[in-house]
Design goal:
- The chain is rod-shaped, with a radius of gyration of 60 Å.
- The protein is mostly helical.
- Helix content is 97%, strand content 0%.
- This is Glial fibrillary acidic protein.
- InterPro entries: IF_conserved, IF_rod_dom, Intermediate_filament.
- Belongs to the intermediate filament family.
Length: 147
């Protein structure tokens, strides 16, 4: 009669040994995966912390640059307003100078006309003087001829 109980005990002990080794392998695999995941979580947590710090730094830089931009916009508006005021003032001054130039050109033209008239009068007087000098010379010759 075969010893079934002993064979069953043998098979049972083999299955229990295999189950124990499977449990041990599964626990080791679980522990290694858990350790890997813990390391990965730690790395990701560190990367997240670094990313948050960078994001905060970028926010601070953005705020600083935004403040600078607003200040520069204010300065730009102020300078543009000053430029408009200067352009208006110089446009008025230029208009005044142009009026003065036109008036002076008119004065020059009238003075040239007056000078031309005086020159004409002088020429006329000179011609009269020359005619009178010739006439005087003629009368002297006549008077000298009578003597």
């Amino acid at each position: 009669k075969p010893d079934l109980t002993a064979a069953l005990r043998d098979i049972r002990s083999q299955y229990e040994a295999m189950a124990a080794s499977n449990v041990q392998e599964t626990e080791e695999w679980y522990k290694s995966k858990f350790a890997d995941l813990t390391d990965a979580a730690a790395r990701h947590a560190e990367a997240l912390r670094v990313a948050k710090q960078e994001a905060n730094e970028y926010r601070r830089q953005l705020q600083a640059l935004t403040c600078d931009l607003e200040a520069l916009r204010g300065s730009n508006e102020s300078l543009e307003r000053q430029l408009r005021e200067l352009e208006e003032r110089y446009a008025l001054e230029t208009g005044g100078y142009q009026d003065t130039v036109v008036r002076l050109e008119e004065d020059i033209r009238s003075l040239k006309e007056e000078m031309a008239q005086h020159l004409q009068d002088y020429q006329d007087l000179l011609n009269v003087k020359l005619a009178l000098d010739i006439e005087i010379a003629t009368y002297r010759k006549l008077l000298e001829g009578e003597e």
